[in-house]
Amino acid sequence: MSAYIFRRIIATIPVMGVVAIFVFLLLHLTPGDPATVIAGDYASPADVERIREQLGLNEPLHVQFIEWVGRLFHGDLGTSIFSQLPVSHLIAQRIEPTIALALTTIIFAVAIAVPLGVLAAWKSGTWVDRVIMIFAVLGFSVPIFVIAYSMIWGFSIKLHWFPVQGYKSIFKDGFIPFIRHITLPTVALGFFYIALIARITRASVMEILTEDYIRTAHSKGLASKVVLLRHALKNASVPIVTIIGIGIGLLLGGVVVTESVFNIPGLGRLTVDSILRRDYPIIQGMILFFSGIYVVINLLVDISYTFLDPRIRY
After folding, report:
1. How far apart are CA 227 and CA 214, in angstroms?
2. Structural domains in the chain?
3. What is the mean pLDDT of residues 210-223?
4. What is the pLDDT of residue 6?
């Protein structure tokens, strides 16, 4: 096990290396002079030259890359062009709302989607299965921002149950204000995630239910719920965990839209603002940060396989 974990960790290094090269070239692939693009149409030559000096664009390309990687190893993601603050400092300021939204969405989605998928597989071909699958299709079809604005109109503007926008910290403002502000973003973001997990759960459990050992368990007199949960769901857990890990990548993309709609001051909102202002150091830092999280999550998913299915050996 330890050897496999070590090999998987080593395998992530080339992946992050490719991401780092792409992120570095992002600035240089911009049409025209990057400093001129960042400075804008009305910038003076002095402003353009200042940006070139700040980004190190006067150095040869390979020298820029070596210096940039060296700063990364020291935890330096660069400095924002507009706020003049370190990118790592800006990420630290905005990370709490994003982590809170991501965690509540994952917990909410998994808690709803897995039972729905198991129920749909158990009641395959019935009206229960059809209703759940219609819900899953809607989850894939309706964009996140449509769901978000619809929930704001219904639950915030009409019913006044939840705030329209904003974020309250669970540590500074308390649990109740936190829940009131995080509920609508969580449900809006979790809608697609629930549909994705529910469909995969249904397909995986239905496949397991056709196996011989399931029929043997039934013939031994075990209750249907015991067979379904202890035997079928357990053996269908590998593809379910896989899609949860893959879905986190989609979740990171959905955070950008959700935070913008609900005006949550998280990393997604920081990314949007940086793109609009062409603050390339922040954009580069955010891509590296999200890529690192995704690589780590996939590493944890791979390692979990050996615990979920004893037949898997590496």
Report:
1. 7
2. 2-73 (no CATH), 91-308 (1.10.3720.10)
3. 71
4. 74
Q: What are phi and psi of 233, to 5 degrees?
A: -65, -40
Look up residue 103 and give its amino acid: L
CA atoms of 238 and 19, how far apart (whole Å): 27
State how far the Cα of 239 lies from the Cα of 78, in Å rounded to an integer: 39
Residues 6+ apart with CB under 8 A from 200: 117, 239, 240, 243
Q: How confident is the model at residue 93 (pLDDT cuts 50, 70, 90)?
A: confident
pLDDT digits (tens, 9 = 90+) for 154-189: 888 888 888 888 888 888 888 888 998 899 999 988
